[in-house]
């Protein structure tokens, strides 16, 4: 730090330096893990609201650090963005997710998260084509999730990329809807198919009727725009009952039905539903 040049290091600065060094170490380890394809994926199913069928599963990246154990994706994805290596992670996840989807029943799609960075570069179009070609997966079984913050920087570029992906029969979902800046009227102008309503909308719907009204209103408007609805983070049976009572969603992704699971569990879960 600057003051070290002046000769003085306070205890606070020691601590800051310690944290800084730790962060640099974590970054170096992440760079190594990504280069070695050492991340792995879990998949969280999205169920039809009545729970009778799995329609899609979201690929969620996992990093188990050799000493520190499991590092949350919120942490290492942000680091990867800062380091400029997120596109390598996206590529890995796309290839792996498409491969795994080929092992599931035909009606189940796979959904992959894209970072804002991925959408600023038309290279993403060839990465997606390569992942589909390499796995043999039909484009109609690939969904891509983008967040509202992806749309801020270069809206024209992002819009063109999304339109191109959609023209190839890929489904586009807006993720964490309701947590960002945009309004539904803005959504209307974007090439989108699915709205994933953020779990913060669901959290208090049982206790607070105003929260339920807000959720129902949001869903109603999204439906008017012709979008399909996924409600995220449904944890309890009470929440599930309310959502179904008001037909407030098409699909549900949440612990009430399933946490993220290894790929092979998707087929097993799906078969178990068929037998019921
Ligand atoms: P997300 O895209 O919103 O993913 C859903 C997160 O909610 C997952 O956390 C999932 O485990 C969690 N979740 C699912 N159901 C419930 C529930 O009922 N209750 C609660 N409290 N949580 C639930 P996870 O796996 O820790 O992922 C966190 C975030 O990391 C993701 O949020 C996504 O933004 C990011 N992420 C994960 N994998 C990738 C990836 O491959 N690429 C990119 N760009 N981002 C990723
Ligand atoms: Ca997501
Ligand atoms: Ca989400
Ligand atoms: Ca998120």
Automatic annotation (TrEMBL):
Residues 23-274 form the EAL domain. Coiled coil: none annotated. This is EAL domain-containing protein. It comes from Rhizobium mesosinicum. The chain holds residues 482 to 757 of 767 of the full protein.
């Amino acid at each position: 730090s600057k003051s070290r040049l002046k000769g003085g290091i306070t205890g606070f600065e020691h601590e800051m330096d310690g944290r800084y060094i730790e962060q640099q170490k974590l970054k170096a380890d992440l760079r190594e893990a990504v280069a070695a394809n050492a991340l792995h994926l879990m998949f969280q199913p999205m169920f039809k609201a009545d729970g009778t069928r799995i329609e899609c599963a979201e690929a969620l990246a996992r990093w188990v650090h050799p000493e520190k154990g499991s590092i949350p994706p919120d942490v290492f994805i942000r680091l990867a963005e800062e380091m400029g290596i997120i596109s390598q992670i996206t590529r890995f996840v796309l290839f792996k997710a498409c491969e795994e989807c080929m092992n599931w029943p035909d009606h189940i799609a796979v959904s992959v998260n894209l970072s804002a960075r991925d959408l600023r570069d038309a290279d993403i179009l060839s990465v997606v084509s390569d992942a589909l070609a390499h796995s043999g997966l039909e484009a109609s079984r690939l969904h891509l999730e983008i967040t509202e913050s992806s749309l801020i920087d270069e809206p024209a570029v992002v819009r063109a990329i999304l339109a191109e992906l959609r023209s190839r029969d890929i489904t586009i979902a807006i993720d964490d809807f309701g947590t960002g800046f945009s309004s539904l009227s803005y959504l209307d102008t974007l090439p989108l198919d699915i709205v994933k309503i953020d779990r913060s909308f669901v959290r208090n719907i049982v206790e607070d009727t105003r929260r339920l009204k807000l959720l129902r209103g949001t869903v109603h408007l999204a439906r008017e725009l012709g979008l399909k609805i996924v409600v995220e983070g449904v944890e309890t049976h009470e929440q599930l009952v309310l959502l179904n009572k008001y037909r407030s969603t098409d699909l549900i992704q949440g612990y009430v039905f399933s946490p993220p699971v290894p790929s092979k569990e998707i087929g097993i879960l799906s078969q178990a539903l068929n037998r019921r």
